[in-house]
Amino acid sequence: MLENRRFVIIGFIALVGLMYLLRLFYLQVLDESYSIESSSNSIKRVIEIPFRGQIYDRTGKLIVYNTPVYDLLVTPYKARVDDTLRFCQVLGIERHDFDSLMAAASAYSRVKPSLFLRQLSKEDFASIQDVMVDYSGFEFAKSSLRTYTAPTLANTLGYVSEITKSQLEKQEETYYRQSDYIGQSGVEKIYENELRGKRGTKFVMQNVAGVYKGPWKNGELDTMAVAGENLYSGIDLEVQQYADSLMVNKVGSVVAIEPKTGRIIAIVSAPTYDPNILASRYFSKNFAALARNPYKPLFNRPVMASYRPGSTFKLIQALIGLQEGVITPGSGFTHANCPMHCHNHPATGTVALGVMHSCNPYFYNVFRRIIYKNNIKNTFRASAVGLDNWHDRISKFGIGQRLGIDLPSEYKGNLPNKKYYDRFYGEYRWKFSNIYSLSIGEGELLITPLKMANVAAIIANRGYFYTPHVIHGIGDKKSVNPDYLIRHDTGVESHNFDPVIEGMVGAVEGGTARRSRVEGITIAGKTGTSQNKRGDDSSIFIAFAPVDDPKIAIAVFVEYAGAGGSAAAPIANLVVEKFLARKITNKALEERMLKADFMSKVILPGVKKPATADSTKKKPVTPAKPVVNKPVAINN
Amino acid sequence: MAENKPITKNVDWVVVLIYIACLGIGWVNIFAAVYNPEVHTSMFDLSNNAGKQLMWIGTAALLVVCILVIDYKFYETFSFIIYAIIILLLIMVLFAGSNINGSRSWIKIGAFSLQPAEFSKLAVSLAISKYLSDPAISLSRKLKDYYPILGIIALPAFLILLSNETGSMLVFASFAIVLYREGMPGFIPAIGMVMAALLIITLLFVKWYIAAAIIVIAGLVIWLMPVMTRRRGGLWATIIVAFVMIGIVFGVDFFMNNVLQKHQRGRIMVLLDPDSDPRGIGWNVIQSKIAIGSGGFLGKGFLQGTQTKFDFVPEQSTDFIFCTVGEEHGFAGTAVVVILFISLISRLVILAERQRSRFARVYGYCVAGIIFFHFMVNVGMTIGLMPVIGIPLPFFSYGGSSLWSFSILLFIFLKIDAQRPFTLSRG
Ligand SMILES: [Zn+2]
Which chain A residues contact residue B295 at CB under 8 A? Predict the structure, then answer.
C-alpha cells in the first residue's frame, strides 16, 4: 500500500517543476515589461533622499533647516577628461587633487559612481553645470546641508555626518547605505528616525551609455520621498543666546527648565562652537580640531559633566529631614559638637535660616538625625539602614540615575548606598562618622548640571517633576513622547517645601547670593561650591522664579570660578531676568559677567601653566582652499 | 559478504551525469556572476568565487572517491555516531565559531570557511534512516514512534536557530516527504498545506470575506455529503473544521496587527507582495525577477548579463545564482536547470523505491526530499513564488560547505545503491 505513495510524491515534485516552468515561461517570454528592447539596456534604481526635519524654538523661530547642495559623482570607467587643466579650473581644484580623487574613485570601483566633490553650493552648481556637459562620466546628485540660524546649541542639536563603517554593519534593518548621512549626536541622533524622513525610490531605464530612457513600468513601483518630521523644542533662542554670551570665556553649563512641563528653555555647554562648522564640506578638518581642543568643546557638559553638588545639596537634606519628621521647620542647631567648619553668621534657629546662611553644622545635624533616627544603640547597623532609606528618598529626585532626557550619553552620576560603602569598609564596619561629608553635598556624591536644574524644578513645583526634555512635539501633529507626560512624585509633601523656599528667598535677598538679586522679581536660590582638587572650586547656583508662580528653574555651573555667589548666581539671575522680563536692569552686573574670564584659570591635564584666554576661544577652522573629501561610492 | 570491486559498473550513471552537469553549469554561471567587464577576470583565479569553486569541486571529487571506496555498511553502522559528531560540531561552533555576516556558524580553516549547519542535513538523514530501519517501527499506527524522530530533528534545529541560520533550519521541513512515504497519515501534510494556504490568504484578503467563503464551502460540503456520512458525525466534523479554520484566520490577523511590530509585519508582507517595499527585502525579489525576466527566450549570452553585474542582484554567486542562468541563457537555460533537477529528484525516488533494505530506502528519500526542498525554495524565491529564504541551490550555488554536504549526501546513497545487488532484503 505505502509503495503507492511514491506516485503522489513524484506527482507533487513534477507539479512543482511544471509550475516553475510555466512561471519562468511567463516571466521570460510572455511578460514584456522585463525584456527591454535592447539587451544592453538596464534598469537602474535611483534613491531620492528627503530633507531632514526642521527644528523650531518655543516662539516658532527656526533653529535648524536645510540648504540644498549638490554632490559631484564620477564613474571612473566612463570618465573622459581631455583637458584636465580647464576641468580643474572650473571646479577650483589642483591638478594633484584631481589625480588623487580619480585614483581613489577607481580604487573603489571602476563601474560604480563614487563621490568626487561633495556639497557644492547652489551658486557653484549653477556655474559648473553647463561646463560639465562636456565631460562624460560625471553626474550631480542633489543633497542637502544642515544649516543653523544661530551659532548656538551645538552639543544639544548634535551633528549629522556620513555613516561610519561600524554603524553600517550594526544596523538592525538594512536602511542605510554607504555614504548616507545619519545623526551622530544630540537631538539629531536621538530623533534620527523621525528626522530622516522616508527615502523615495525610482526605477528608471537607461541605455548602455547611462542615458535616461524613461521610467520603468511607468513608475508603478516608484515611491515618493517623504520629508522628515519637524521637531518643536521648548528652547527660547533669545534666552539661549544670551546665556551663551554670559558663558563666553568660562567652562561650565547653564540649564534652564520650565518647571510645570519639564521643557528645557536654555541649555549651554561652555565652551561651545558654531554648529555650522560641522555641517560643511570641511567637516573632517573642523571635527578633528574640536576633538583636539583641550577644553573639550564636544563634551556635552550639562548632561555628561559631573560635580559634587556642594551646598545646593543642603536643600534636599532639609526636605528629607522634614519629610522624615526628624526635624521641624523650627528646629535649630548650633556649631557645637560638630567636626565641620563654618563661617560667621547669625544664629540658625529655623530651617529657613539654616538654608539662608548655608550653615554646615546645621546640615551635619540634620543628616545625622536622618541616618540615626535617634537610634544610637548600634550605630553601625543604624547607619546601614538609615543610609539605604536616605538613598531611596534621594533617588526620587532623580539623583544617581539617568533622568531620561532626549540627549545621548546622559551620565547617571553617583548616589552612594549601603553596598557602596560596604565595598570600602566591609559590612557594618562604617557608620555616620565615615559618611557625614554627604550632609553638605561633598563626599561620594556626583551630579550633573541637568540634575541640579531638575532639583530646582522639583522645589519650584513643591514636590514633583516632569522628565526634562528638549523636544516636546514631533511632526505636524506635534505628538508628544508619552514618557514626558508622566508626573514623577518625590514623596515629599508640599508643606515641607515652605521653610526651604523661605530660606532660598532669604539667600538671594540677604544671604549668600544677595549681590546678584534682581529688582522686581522674587528669586529663590541657593549657592554651592564644588571642591576641585586641581584648582579653584566650581561655582554653582540653582534657583527658580517667580517664587509664587515659578516659570523657570535654573542651574548654573562655572568651573574654576570659586564660590557660588561669585559667578554662577549672577549669571543665573541675569538669565532668569532675561526670560521673565526680557530686559536687564543691572547693567553693571551684566557687563561684569560678560567680561569675566574664568577660562584662564583652568588647569589642563599635562599643562603646567594656565593657558591664556585667547588661545582657548573657539576658532572655527576655515581652510583657504577647497578641502578634497575622500570619494565614497554611492550604491545606486 | 559484499565485494566492492565493480563499483563503477553498479553506480547509477544517470545520477552521476546529472550531478556532473549541474556542477559544470553552476561553475560557468558563478564565473559569469563574478565576471567584471572592466577587469580581466580569469576562471581559474583563486581570488574570485569561480576559482575557489573549482577548488571546492576538485576536493568534492576526492570526497566522492573516498565515499565510494568505504564499505557501504559503514554508513548504517555509524549513523548515530556521525549524528553525534555533527551535533558536537554545532555546539562547538556556538562558542568558538567565526562570525560571518552576523551568523556565528562558521569554522575557519585558513582562507576557507566551513559551516557545520550544512552537514546537519546529512546527520539527520542518517539518524532517521537508522531509526526507521527497525521494522517494528510504524509511523501509521503508533504515535510514540514519532518522538525519537522529532528529537533527532529538533536538537540540530535548535542549535542552528541559536547560531542564526534560519534558512538551514527550515530545510528540516523536507523530512515530511520521507515520513509520508514511511506511513505518516496523509492528513498531516495536508493540514500543513491548508494552514500555509490559510496564512497566505489571510494576509492578502479581508478576513470577513475569507470567513464567509469558508462558511459557504462548509455548507456545500455538508449539502453534497452522503446522508449516512452526515448522520455519522460528518455534519459536526465539517462545522468544527470550518470554525477552526475561521479561528486560524482571525488568529493570524490578530497576531499580525496586534502582536507584531510594524517593521516585522512589513517583513512578512513583503514575502507576499515585494512591491510593498521596493527598496528593502522586496528589492531582491524585484531585481531577481528583472534579471530573469530580461533574459527572454534565449538569454543575453554568456557574460553578457547586465542585471546580475554591478550588484543589481545581491548574493549573485550564492543564493541568487539562478538569476544569472535566467539572464544569460534565457528560458532555454532555466528550463534545462529545472528539468535537470526534476529528473534528478525523480530518479532518486525511483532508486529509493528499488532498495531492499528500509534503511537504504529511507535514506534515499531523505536525499531526494532535501534536494527537492532546496530546489523548490531557492528557485521559487528568485521567481517570486517563495519567500526570500537564504538557502543555496544544490550543486549550483557558490560555497564549499554546501557543495561538500550535497556531494556526500548524494554519493553515500549512490554507494549504498550500488551495493544493492549484493545485499539481502531486511525490511
Ligand atoms: Zn554655620
Answer: 28, 35
User: A334-375: per-residue pLDDT in tens?
Assistant: 888 888 888 888 888 999 999 999 999 999 999 999 998 877
Q: pLDDT over 70 for what percent of chain A?
A: 89
Pairing of strands A231-233, A55-56: parallel
Backbone angles phi, psi at A452, to 5 degrees: -70, -35
Would you say residue A426 has pLDDT above 90? no
Q: State in Å: Cα A524 to ligand 1 middle.
A: 20
A45 Rama sector, left if φ>0, alpha if ψ -120 to 50, beta otherwise:
beta
Position B72 scores a pLDDT of 84
- Whether residue A383 contacts residue A432, with contact meaning beta carbons closer than 8 Å, is answered with yes
Q: Which SS3 state, helix, strand or coil, does residue B103 take?
A: strand
| Residue whose entry in the numeric block shows the C-alpha cell 537610634 | A375
Percent of chain B with pLDDT over 90: 29
Nearest to B275 among A31, A45, A221 (CB): A221
Residue range(s) in chain A whose domain bears CATH number 3.90.1310.10: 63-148
Q: What residues 353-382 of chain B have any CB closer than 8 A to a CB of chain A?
A: 353, 372, 376, 379-380
Predicted confidence (pLDDT) per residue in A24-67, tens digit: 999 888 877 765 544 445 666 677 888 899 999 999 999 999 98
Give the pLDDT of residue A537.
Answer: 86
| Alpha-carbon span B385 to B296, nearest angstrom | 19
User: CA of A77, closest CA in chain B: separation in Å?
Assistant: 8
| Residue spans per domain, chain B | 2-185+260-422
Cβ neighbours of B243 (radius 10 Å) = 14
- The one-letter amino acid code at A36 reads I
Residue A611 pLDDT: 42
- Residue of chain B nearest A176, judged by CA positions: B280
Global pTM reads 0.62
- Could you tell me the CATH superfamily of domain A63-148? Penicillin-binding protein 2a (Domain 2) (3.90.1310.10)
Percent of residues, chain A, with pLDDT higher than 90: 46
Q: Of all helices (H) and strands (E), which one includes residue B290?
A: helix B281-293
Q: Taking 60 as the threshold, does the pLDDT of residue A624 lie above it?
A: no
Question: How many angstroms separate the CA atoms of A155 and A278, rounded?
Answer: 11
Closest CA of chain B from A75, distance in Å? 12
Contacts of B374 in chain A (CB under 8 A): none
pLDDT tens figures, A143-181 = 888 999 999 999 999 999 888 888 877 776 667 876 788
Size of interface A-B (CB pairs under 8 A): 120
Grid coordinates representing B214?
469558508
Question: Cβ B38–A77 below 8 Å, yes or no?
Answer: yes
- Interface probe, candidates A5, A8, A13, A201, chain B, greatest B C-beta count within 10 A: A13
How would CATH label the architecture of A237-616?
3-Layer(aba) Sandwich (3.40)
As a whole number of angstroms, the distance between CA B218 and CA B214 comes to: 6
Model pLDDT, residue B94: 82
Which long-range contacts (C-beta less than 8 Å, at least 24 apart) are formed by A508-514?
Answer: A508/A543, A508/A569, A508/A573, A510/A356, A511/A356, A511/A357, A511/A358, A512/A311, A512/A356, A512/A357, A512/A358, A512/A563, A512/A564, A512/A565, A512/A569, A513/A541, A513/A543, A513/A564, A513/A565, A513/A569, A513/A573, A514/A565
Residue with the three cell numbers 565559531: B97
B residues 229-248 closer than 8 Å to A (CB): none
B110 falls in which pLDDT band (50, 70, 90)?
A: low
> Cα torsion at B262, B267, B270, B276 (round to 10°)?
30
**Cell numbers at B69, concatenated:** 571506496
Establish if A107 touches chain B: CB-CB under 8 angstroms.
no
Give ranges for CATH 3.40.710.10 in chain A: 237-616
Band of residue A550 on the pLDDT scale cut at 50, 70, 90: very high
